[in-house]
Amino acid sequence: TSVHWHGFFQHTTNYVDGPSFITQCPIVPDNYFNYNFQALNQAGTFWYHS
């Protein structure tokens, strides 16, 4: 599992964009991953899913 974000421009943080096996390794059961990125000066519709 991972969390995939829509609408954010992830400048220099594409490794937390979420698609498993594409930009990020999946989060294995009983483990966690802290998503940390900034969305400065961005306006629009944003959503996420796993």
Fold and architecture overview:
The chain is mainly beta. It has one domain (1-40). Helix content is 0%, strand content 12%. The protein is built from no helices and 2 strands. A two-stranded antiparallel ribbon has the order 1-2. It is elongated. The N and C termini lie close together (6 Å). 2% of the residues are buried. The model has no long low-confidence stretch (mean pLDDT 80).
Number of strands: 2
- N- and C-termini, Cα separation: 6 Å
* SSE pattern: EE
Total helices: the number is 0
| Mean of residue pLDDT values | 80
User: Which strand order do you get reading across the main beta sheet?
Assistant: 1-2
**Largest sheet composition:** 2 strands, antiparallel
Helical residues, percent:
under 10%
User: Low-confidence parts, pLDDT < 50 over ≥5 residues?
Assistant: none
> Structurally, how many domains make up the residues?
1
SS content category = mainly beta
Question: Based on CA inertia axes, which overall geometry fits?
Answer: elongated
Cα radius of gyration in angstroms = 11 Å
**Percent of sequence in beta strands:** 5-15%
Give a short summary of the structure.
The chain has 50 residues and is an all-beta fold. Helices cover 0% and strands 12% of the residues.
Notable traits:
single chain, 50 residues, mainly beta, two-stranded antiparallel ribbon, elongated
Task: Please describe the topology of this protein.
Elements lengths: L3 E3 L40 E3 L1
